[in-house]
Amino acid sequence: MGVFFTASRWEGEVVNAEPGKCAKLIWAPPDMLPDNTVPYTAAGVGFWMSGCSIGVPGWPQQ
Description:
Elements: H1 39-49
């Protein structure tokens, strides 16, 4: 399960706390994610961009 939050403001620098699992952290426009973005992360961003507050990627909508 992935849970995603939006921030209205940010201070400081991002820190890669899991370098063994994550190559790097970058700020990217939500409609221009890098090709190697983890699929569930890309799905979460896609749901957010479409205004959907909850989604189950890969499952048929009812």
